[in-house]
Each structure stands twice: as C-alpha cells, then as structure tokens.
C-alpha cells in the first residue's frame, strides 16, 4: 500500500465512522476503497469489520447521554446482536456470496419502509405495546440484523433502526444511540472470529480504526443535533444509496 492509498483508507474510515454513527452504511464507503487498493473481497470485508469497531464504539460513547436509562434494554438486546454476529461471521466463510447478497436489497427496502412509516405505526401501535420493549419480535429482529451485520454489514444500522422504530416506543435519537452500541458489538464479535477463521489485513484495520474513531466523534456531534424528521430523511437517503450500490455490483 502506498502512502496515498493509506491516506485514502484513513479518510474513508473517517467518513464511515461518521456515517455509521448517524445512521449506518459506512461499509459502503470503506469496502470499495479497500478493494480499490488491492485487497481481495473477503479479506477486505473481514478487515473492514475489524477496522470499524473502534469507530462504532467511539460513536456509542458520543451518544452516551442518550444511552442513559436503557440498561435493561441493552441487557436484553446485546446478546441477540452478539449471537447474530457470530452466526453471520460463520455464514461468511461457509456460504456462497450470491446466496445471501440476493436478499440484501430486499432487507434494506423493508427497513426503509419501516423507517418512513414509523410515526404512523407508533400512533397505531402505541396502545398495544405497553411499555414498548418490543418483546420477542424485537429480539428476533435484532438477532437477524446481527446475522446480516456479521456477514457483510452495509446498512446494518438502517435495518436495526427500522426494526426498533416499529417495535419500540422511544425517541429516535435514543434508538440511534442503542443502534450504535448494538452494531459495534456485532462488528466486534464477528471481527474476533475472523481473526481465527479468515485472513486479516492488519494495516488496513489500523488505518480504518484511526479514521473511524475520529469519524465516530464527528458523527455523534452532528447526529445528536438532528431533529427526528431530518434523521429519518438521512436514513432513507443512505439506505437508497446502499440499495443502488449493491444492485450495481
């Protein structure tokens, strides 16, 4: 890797860290850059997952105020994300790419629809949800999103926000804070597994980690100031961009 290529990877990490903190889909920035500098797809995917972990944790720390009071929700959903990440990592090294990527655009479309109609559904379902903890459906949804995140990860945040937006009676910014924590652990457990079952480009991991930590803090400062309607719009725009890029591959 040349110096300029290394700089490009760091810059991509900054953008990805910021995008992941605000909504998700930062992988759609970093993964193509790693491919462009010469890494094979699986190595790029594995290294990307590991490299973006510090950025996700940085973003979660930036949203720490919004995480207050969500301890029981974290205790319930974190195991679902961790288990999903493990399953997704195993699928990455055992299943053909086409078998899983075929449904990725469909998953993102569903998530975007959920994000868009969330306010209406919140009003319709508020009297049925009780304390709004989401129940078993939320756990299964977060688990499924963790599988997807462990396998590839692009737009994982969009999926999680879509699922929680319908099933959890909570402010959008607080859900975004929880999303940052859950996706960070998905990437972490998948990344740890990749160390043992796949090849890792450690230089790329280091460069992405540096950039994503900076981007995570920038994303938290920007994202926490966005009104729910604007944040919802950002989610939709990024999700549509993710669909377009995945369909063009």
TrEMBL record:
Keywords: Cell membrane, Membrane, Transmembrane, Transmembrane helix, Transport. It is a multi-pass membrane protein. The chain crosses the membrane at residues 7-36, 74-93, 99-117, 137-164, 184-208, 229-248. Belongs to the 4-toluene sulfonate uptake permease (TSUP) (TC 2.A.102) family. InterPro entries: TM_pro_TauE-like, TSUP. Its main location: membrane. It is found in: Cell membrane. This is Probable membrane transporter protein. GO terms for cellular component: plasma membrane. Pfam families: TauE.
